[in-house]
């Protein structure tokens, strides 16, 4: 089906969610330089969020994790070379026929 959002709106929603829930994402931005300040880490995170918001860079697991919460949708990611990834299990709904009709399915 079609989406009520265009790609730019989705990117903005994801960046906003990441900012609003920074504690969930900051551990993935751990300091690479010993002694680096928390302010520097927060600045890197903000720069990352700006890139998510304003570029066409591919999203990864962090962005898909945010997207599942923004849309309140279960997301399945399929890849030929990697195991399937399931995100947003709390939003998974089964229509009774074993079909995941409200899930988003991505393949790459």
TrEMBL record:
GO terms for molecular function: cysteine-type deubiquitinase activity. Pfam families: OTU (PF02338). SUPFAM superfamilies: Cysteine proteinases. GO terms for biological process: protein deubiquitination. Residues 1-108 form the OTU domain. Belongs to the peptidase C85 family. This is OTU domain-containing protein. It comes from Opuntia streptacantha.
């Amino acid at each position: 089906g079609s989406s009520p959002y265009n790609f730019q709106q989705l990117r903005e929603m994801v960046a906003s969610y990441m900012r609003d829930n920074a504690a969930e994402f900051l551990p993935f931005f751990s300091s690479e330089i010993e002694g680096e300040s928390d302010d520097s880490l927060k600045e890197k995170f903000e720069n990352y969020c700006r890139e998510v918001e304003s570029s066409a860079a591919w999203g990864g697991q962090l962005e898909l994790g945010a997207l599942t919460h923004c849309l309140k949708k279960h997301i399945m990611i399929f890849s030929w070379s990697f195991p399937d990834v399931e995100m947003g299990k709390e939003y998974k709904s089964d229509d009774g026929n074993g079909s995941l009709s409200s899930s988003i399915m991505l393949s790459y």
